[in-house]
Structure formats: C-alpha cells, structure tokens
Specification:
single chain; mainly beta; 8-stranded mixed β-sheet; 5-stranded mixed β-sheet; globular
C-alpha cells in the first residue's frame, strides 16, 4: 500500500498553513473541491504531499452526495475521539471492502474509493486510481526541495484510546509501513530521509503535527 498523500483536517481557511510557511515550507495553489464543500492547501515533497483540508461550504459538505465520506463528522466534529487525519493510498489493497465515491471535482478517468469499515476514531482511509502514466494535476507544483525534507520514510499516527482497529487499519499497519498508536491526543508524526539529521519540529498545540528529518 503506497501512500499518495496525507491529510490533516483544519479550521476554516486553514490558518495553520502560516505555521508551515513560517517553518520554511511553501504550499501550492489553494484548491476548492466543487460539490464537496471543502478546500485545501497542499505541501509537496519528493514522494508524497501533505494536504490541509478545511470547510468552504457547509451546505455542500452536509449534502447527500458527500454523506458517504463522513467528512462533515470529521470537519465539524466536537468529539475528541474523532481522528483529524486522513491517508490516501495510490490504489486499493486487494480484499479490502471499499465504497466508490465520484465527486464533481474528480477529473475524468480518475477513481476515488473509501474504506467501507472506517470508524471516525481512525483516520479517513481512501484510495485514488489515476490513468496510467498521468500525474495528478494538483501534484504538478513546486516541491519543497529547498527545505531539508525530501523523501517521506516513516509515518506514525496517534488515534483515540479504547477502540478496536478495523480490518482496513490492520491492513494499513501490515502493508503500508504506517504505525498506529493509541493515546489521549491525536498526533501525526512524519519522518523524512530516515531522520538522518536528527532534527525535529513540533507544531502543537496549533497543529497536531511533528516533523523529523
């Protein structure tokens, strides 16, 4: 299971972007998700990108077309057990049960699917399939080569305590290299280049993100 990108659900307008900018990372062009009621700001690296996702139109977010994603529950949640994260893989893993999702903003030839056994206590697990040889349009942007963060090599996600892992989460741990831990507060810990320089930066409490490189 190869990671396409990682998601952190943020406040409206994603003011958290300023924290990453101040750290020295540069985001790509802001992107609206027509019909889904969300928008995002993305930070691109050598083998993946980080998406900060936020509400743009609450009515669209709560619409019947978007209900299957349960994004409204995640983005408008007040429950501390709800994970503020998502992970998109480049294709579904065999034998996992998924639900097709066809939002308005998805280009022709692309396919999105969602894990069908995905409690909100876990990150949103979803999958994207793109035409052979074609890069996603929103990936054709400046990669943060000027920073010291190049290749993502490890991902650790903290989820709420007291919940059994879904079959998808178990497959993720077994086949993607992502590690899941249970704790009181959520955290996305990303390691770049195997942490060769022994450096780190913690964006908490404003953003549940810890970077190592």
């Amino acid at each position: 299971m190869e990671i396409d990108h990682l998601v952190i659900f943020c406040s409206p307008g994603a003011q958290e972007v300023e924290l990453l900018n101040a750290f020295g990372l540069h985001d790509g062009v802001a992107r609206s998700h027509s019909g889904q009621g969300t928008a995002s700001r993305c930070f691109f690296f050598g083998n993946c990108y980080l998406e900060l996702l936020f509400v743009e139109d609450e009515a669209q977010l709560r619409s019947h077309a978007t209900r299957v994603t349960r994004l409204a529950e995640r983005l408008l949640q007040t429950d501390s057990n709800t994970s503020p994260f998502g992970v998109c893989f480049k294709q579904p893993y065999p034998d996992l049960k998924t639900l097709d999702y066809r939002p308005e903003f998805l280009p022709d030839g692309y396919r999105l699917s969602l894990a069908s056994d995905n409690p909100t206590s876990e990150p949103l697990w979803f999958f994207i399939e793109i035409p052979d040889g074609e890069a996603q349009p929103f990936q054709r942007q400046n990669i943060n080569w000027q920073s010291e963060l190049h290749q993502l090599t490890a991902v650790q996600l903290t989820i709420a305590q007291g919940h059994s892992l879904s079959a998808t989460a178990q497959a993720v741990m077994a086949h993607s290299g992502i590690e899941l831990f249970a704790d009181v507060t959520p955290l996305m810990e990303l390691t770049f280049d195997h942490g060769a320089l022994g450096e780190s930066h913690d964006f908490r409490p404003a953003l549940p993100l810890l970077l190592r490189w």
